[in-house]
Each structure stands twice: as C-alpha cells, then as structure tokens.
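Ligand: N,N,N-trimethyl-histidine. Inputs:
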Amino acid sequence: MRHVPTLERLPASVTAVAGDFSLSVIEGLSRAKKILPCRFFYDARGSCLFEEITQLPEYYPTRTEIGILNARAAEIVKGFSSGDVLVEFGSGSSRKTEILLDRIADRVVYVPIDVSEAALAEAVFRLEERYPALEIRPLVADFSSLTKLPHEFSGSRRTGFFPGSTIGNLAPGDAAALLAKFRKVLGERGRLIIGVDLKKDARVLVRAYNDAAGITAAFNLNLLVRINRELAGTFDLTAFHHRAIYNPRSGRIEMHLVSDRAQDVMVCGRRFHFANGESIHTENSYKYTVSEFRALAEKASWKTSRVLTDANEQFSVHELI
Ligand code: AVJ
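Predicted complex:
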C-alpha cells in the first residue's frame, strides 16, 4: 500500500486559504482593468504545465538557476550545521532543492511549503525514498500569508530557500514586503537563498513566455479552465488567446488573456462583459539588475552576503543574511 505522507495544515488564522479563489476572481473581473491573480495558476494541471515549461528550450530561468546551484552548492551549504531548518517557500516539485539536500540531508530538517497539496505529496513521497534519514515536515499553505512556523522550529537556525524568481511575480513594493515577512518567519539569525531573474535583451525575455510549443499559452488559459470547473464559469476557451509582452518602463514581462470578440461570461452566477480585444492581466514577472535587487533586499532589512550568477549573467542567486 503506497504510504501517503502526512501533510500538516496550519490553523486558518495563519494561512487563510479557503474561499480565496472565488472572492479574488469576482473582485479581479469586476475591475475596470480586469485581472486574475497568478497564484491560481497552480492547480494540479497548472503545476504539471509549469513543470513542462521548465523543460522548454525558450524558458532559460530554470536550467540556468540549476546550473548555478550545481556549480556553487558546496559554498551555499557551508553555512548549514546540524539541526538547522531549511524552509522552502512554494516548493512545488522540490527538484532544485535536491542539489542542496544531496549535501545536507543528514543534518537538516526540511520544511517544504506549497498551496498545491498534490504537488507537495508527490515531492515528499519522492524525497522520502531518496533521503530515508531526512526529516521532512511539509506544510500546505500559501507562503505569502504565512506569519510564523510551528513553534518547535523557533529555537533552530532557519534558512529560507526561494528559487525560480517567483519573487518576480510581485511588484517591487510587495516584493520588499514579502522579504520583510520572510525575515520575521526566519528570524534575526535567519538566512535566505533566493533566485532572481536578471534584466536582458527583451527578445530573449519575450521568447521565454511565448514558447513555440504553446505550453505557456496552455498554462495561462488553464486559469479559465479552472474557473469553469470550480466556479461554474462559462469561458469559451476558443474565444480568448494568450499574450506575453515585455514592458521596459517597469522592467517586467506581462501575461494577458485577450478576448477575441465582444462576449459575456458567467462566473459564480454573475455576468461579466468583455469587449473585443479586452484583456485580463494574469501575471507579471519583474526582472532586476543585481544592484537593483540588492537595494530592494536592503529595504527589507536583508544584507546581501553573496551573489552568484552564470557566466552570461542571465540569472542570479542571492544569499541574504
Ligand atoms: C514561477 C513565477 C517564476 O514568472 O517566470 C513561467 C512562472 N509564467 N512562464 C515566471 C511562469 C510563465 C514563472 N515563475
């Protein structure tokens, strides 16, 4: 009988996940400039589609970050001592984490945090096989609303791991606020290892979010599939298309779902009108220079102790203390 890992749930006061989807969708579609929060991309299918994106030739962030972690893992893990806690925010498949766990599984407690119970269960099952001695304490939670970790970790040195440039989904002000929250969760002695995608030729960026195979488009449109399934939506998937552009003024990739005709859509029994060409803004992916991110971290009371990049300076991993 396949062992199902125990997935701990924090009390609602700490996570506040329930009802969030319907409220946020109604609120987003009621705005003059319609939006849908990107955190809802990650249902079971969305998590799988994102895994596919990370394998795409155009999507360089994942393999570039993995290259940096493999090349510099020995330096990164130097700071870990026995009993330390490695906390991963939005852990997903925990594939990148293995690069570190290969070197420290014998001395740390691993706390993967993710909203997707399916992705978390899958990852924990795989890691328990690979690292029988590793203590794993998975948490089903939305890391952006996390205020504290279970009390038992309060005495240990906590290191956060936040790879993949997920910080880029937030506007710089909100990113600083999240880093400040991580400071609280990880404590004054805490460390944070964070992946940050770097500014570069806009053509390279636009290609990474408009792959030839159309996986990113499916990932974006899957949000409408989820609304139809969970919120009695009537989105006609053939009447919307994916668009990803680079906005140089704000240094971000923007993803949109564009209506191909004037149409009405029902969601949770409410009617929403879309003009021809009107878009729903679904995701931002901010890009930084190393010095811009150092300044942002400073604002959130994190000192940058080390910045690791690949030879072509496409991606960066920052160690904050
Ligand atoms: C997981 C948020 C880092 O913004 O690059 C990939 C998500 N969106 N392709 C990113 C994503 C479209 C990804 N992050």
